């Protein structure tokens, strides 16, 4: 259930006609009819056939430019009425009930992204579920106590609450109180204004007016308030609505002062620009790339906060635009900081090179019919492509051990979970192996893979099997090699295949060349991917990592009369080779083969 609440004319710019999100002079879409209580949207959605045609006839750069152009030209109406869900209504009723119960003369406002998305959200778009309450005359923790008192009087229990203290050294200037009610976390903060002393970047905080607080926000589009007391939207910078209409990313105050207050705002500006297809203001870009702001971002902001922003960029709908901004604004090396002992040292244009790989991967995984990737697979596929130029770069840790630099980027530069680093590094390693099998998988023939550095033992095991069985098909060799590969990478094998295809195009080329010369020939890669995917599925290897060994460790020791150690592991590899070569083989047949091999070895000895 939703409730449509009108926006009072005296508290927001009157909306007498449809508001276009995007520069009006550049819009090429049909005029949108105005509907007083709903939102009508005409988007640049591309049909399946048109997408394929578009994919095959345009270069990567042109496609991305068209996609960005499409985003900036999409015509939408800003909503004349804001729609409140039933759960939101119940939450707001409890907040207003607290004011009445405690006899408080307090104004409560929802701030930021929730308001922005309520005004502009299309039915199919993702909107912000975060409800941040700005309070005009008390701290968030004080109101939290009042709210708990009111809920207790009604016999309602709080699902959780906490207070996050200020941390000025990390640009966390506000105390934030949090409470979970109706399965929704709500943040409570006081309206603020800030004063800076001449010799300190850390501001002195004091209660501010709603207008002062709005001007201290990161972006004008995030400075809108929804006043719960009056049920109205407040655009106190008098720019928020206009910038939503024109698709501009602008700071309420001068950009450099805003960024030095909290340098993370640079990344937020990039993220929102990429997410909405909005244009970053020229002054904002100039200040974002300044030495002072770049140093502040690297020194003042925790790596975890930086990593969170990057993750949102990569997981969003404009990762290429986001990384392009990071590269163009000279922020790539700040965000993805390398250790000084990196070998080889990153090139000056590494950001542009990484962006080119990311752009190609993004274009591939966006293609209709090119497999189904989960959100996690998509995210890590983009990271794997982004960091592909660093797959052979290492650094020396405190113990003198050489470690992949990608590990450092994930664990230290972005403070991401260890499994992210492990998965991407494994994708890179598998990519190199996959590269050696691409031609054979396309031909469905393993004749050209008699010598592989990574599969020497596997090939020897297969040869010993083929000697005893001259009728074994040649395709069994490619099945065995690919099976080992997929059992290692598991359900990320499609990501590794795409990554290896990207690498196959530039194999033998200098990756530090101008990125304009990197032609990934995406249509050919797409066709190659579909052919190889079909071959792998025909070989029955999809989900091969779920197949259990036909013979367990105890049976191996019993038949071979070995007690464990290296020789048992060798036999496990031999048995897996046999099992992959004979997909319909039984456990008893496998054990018989083991006895034959053992007897043959004993006769030889």
Automatic annotation (TrEMBL):
* Any Pfam family the entry gives: PolyA_pol
Record's keyword terms, sorted: RNA-binding, Transferase
Query: SUPFAM superfamilies under this entry?
Result: Nucleotidyltransferase (SSF81301), Poly A polymerase C-terminal region-like (SSF81891)
Is Transmembrane helix found in the keyword set? no
Recorded hits in CDD domains, A to Z, give: NT_ClassII-CCAase
Q: Which residues form a coiled coil?
A: none
Residues covered by the Poly A polymerase head domain: 108-249
Give the protein family. Answer: Belongs to the tRNA nucleotidyltransferase/poly(A) polymerase family.
User: What PANTHER family does the database record attribute to this sequence?
Assistant: POLY A POLYMERASE HEAD DOMAIN-CONTAINING PROTEIN (PTHR13734:SF7), TRNA-NUCLEOTIDYLTRANSFERASE (PTHR13734)
Kindly provide the name given to this protein in its UniProt entry.
Poly A polymerase head domain-containing protein
Organism of origin: Brassica napus
